[in-house]
Amino acid sequence: MLTASDRTTLQIVSCVQPNGDLEVSLASVPIPRPGPSEVVLRIEAAPINPSDLILLLAGADAGQLAAGGSPERPVLTGKVRSAAALQARFGQSIPVGNEGAGTVVEAGSAPEAQALLGKTVAVATGSAMFAEYRVVHAALCLVLNPGSTAIDGASACINPLTALGFIETMRKEGHTALANTAAASNLGQMLVRICLKDGIPLVNVVRTAEQAAILKGMGASYVCNSSEPSFLADLTEAFASTGTTIAFDAIGGGRMAGDLLACMEAALNRKATSYSRYGSPTHKQVYIYGGLDTAPTQLVRTFGLAWGLGGWLMTPFLQSLEPAKVVALRRRIADELTTTFASPHARQVSLAEALRLPAVTEYAKRATGSKYVIVPSR
Amino acid sequence: MLTASDRTTLQIVSCVQPNGDLEVSLASVPIPRPGPSEVVLRIEAAPINPSDLILLLAGADAGQLAAGGSPERPVLTGKVRSAAALQARFGQSIPVGNEGAGTVVEAGSAPEAQALLGKTVAVATGSAMFAEYRVVHAALCLVLNPGSTAIDGASACINPLTALGFIETMRKEGHTALANTAAASNLGQMLVRICLKDGIPLVNVVRTAEQAAILKGMGASYVCNSSEPSFLADLTEAFASTGTTIAFDAIGGGRMAGDLLACMEAALNRKATSYSRYGSPTHKQVYIYGGLDTAPTQLVRTFGLAWGLGGWLMTPFLQSLEPAKVVALRRRIADELTTTFASPHARQVSLAEALRLPAVTEYAKRATGSKYVIVPSR
């Protein structure tokens, strides 16, 4: 229970000035009293996801950041590359952190809030989770099963719901197999485990032989390495074998999205019995859900006219599903938290350590296996 | 009535060999007896549309074509740029011509076929309309109103249904205004007339001051010239004024599609009350329906994650509508054939003349106002 005299929390905030100066620091802010349907969560683990970096570093070059301030109150400074696009956040100290897990230490009067008291829960709020405490709505909380720790549940929301969201999108749009790029990521490995378990054909695109070996070792059937000269032929072959007509692309920039569409088209045309000047009539879809490559997307349009490309974001997609479906997906995550949905975290850091070099430079790389989790009590 | 002894028709056919040789010529083929629900159409006017050029010239450089053969049987020869993509049509003489109009001179036994005897009808078959005669299904025929000629009705199907299809797509996907590029084209001018008549806000993108003047002269409210230095600001302003969140792009290559999305996003963000790292939550859509620029599509992704880009083709879109809706659209076209849906044809050529220089070079330019219509009786 929080005392009346000490109702403050440290939180990581990020601020961009009109001149492009970026400052990331720790702010001490009051913890509000929870509303009737709200609870106060003591955050015990919060992962640093690529989506957090957008807000945290605002597109500043991580290699050019400077660490200063005091040991207890470190301050990270840098320059953003394109201030104009950030106009809407100029001068605001924005609290960062999309998800995490911890213990409910205070609850509002409503039964659904009271029921959570003392429970270990995971939550994705989309903001202010890089903090010691946060007030959250009871309905957002996913109660972890007995035996699951906050570290187990730190990443229980975003990656698991994203991976399951890919599969639900595939089904909703009438496809029976899917592809994923940057497939050796935490999310990618989770998707491999889900698809193996559920018997869904999955084509994995990676960029090194080491990443291919990791996925093959997990039992993945289709792994295509974009660094191989045979990549496009391999991808076409995998699409033809699986009937894949939807792909999720974490890269975004360069030729990948167009290559995915072109290889789907080539695989479909193998079965064509007559020439169609408009290409295969089967709809081919690619969703860009990340931006590992921030360069422009280049589409060499050799895939007919039955195609779509778009952005994909988990929260609005889930909102388009039946609420009961979302409840079932979340229940499955809790039940398979340490198996299908396990997220190995590479390094634990405190709130202050997350603002120091070289930790920042490391997690900003968003490289396979270099994931960090913030443990405020450290 | 066709005589029993002369049941042949000339038709324009296009053939690509595995070595990339293209040959376009006139073939003499038998006219089959119509089935019960079919009719024989004497084609009196058939326009040469950009979509016909895909099949006719197979991507060969129109400037490098050679004209030969005899005056009655001219032969056009050339080299296609990318033979590999055309494998499915190697060695086949493909009859060309998507749409046209003429008189029904013979009919099958079914009442719906008999009812068409002697009528002037327009039809889009998707093939073999560059001919003297063609057997077509009665259900495809749009009976022109008394007083409308075959020349009036030659382009009554593809452009009018495409323009109306844009508006139906806009409505179906929940938008209230739309944009179109290459807006001074026949199709673009038709869209201007429809939108003026129906009170739908339309943003027109053109690339010269002359084209802008044409549309302004027709009464278009929003015309943005992509050659102006203020183009992106003008487009953003027009999108903000009209609330446009869907665009149809005939260009395809280069930055246009991405610029449309970026300007929609900029217009939406003017009204944003807080910063969202994922961009505006309002879905922004661009459909590519042509390929005036065959270069790769370049997307500089500064438009958040709520966006879509895709190919758009009239026939499958119409098939997704209620049949009664399609009947109503076709009826409207017949009723407004010489007003809203008028297509000025620049030049009339015979079947043979269509295979001679410089006619081929002219219509292959697909330039505003350089449209040709084939009149087989010439």
Describe the protein:
Two copies of one chain form a homodimer. Chain A is an alpha/beta fold and 378 residues long. Helix content of chain A is 28%, strand content 28%. Chain A has eleven helices and 20 strands. Chain A has helices spanning 50-57, 111-114, 150-153, 158-172, 186-198, 209-218, 231-242, 256-269, 314-319, 323-335, 359-364, and strands at residues 8-16, 21-30, 38-48, 66-69, 74-79, 94-95, 99-107, 120-124, 133-137, 142-143, 178-181, 202-206, 222-225, 246-249, 252-254, 284-288, 293-299, 307-311, 347-349, 372-374. In chain A, the strands form four sheets. In chain A, strands 3, 7, 8, 9, 10, 19 and 20 form a seven-stranded mixed beta sheet that branches. In chain A, strands 13-12-11-14-16-18 form a six-stranded parallel beta sheet, with helices on both faces. In chain A, strand 19, helix 11 (359-364) and strand 20 (372-374) form a beta-alpha-beta unit. In chain A, helix 4 (158-172) crosses helix 5 (186-198). The two termini of chain A are 20 Å apart. The interface between A and B is large, with 42 and 42 residues.
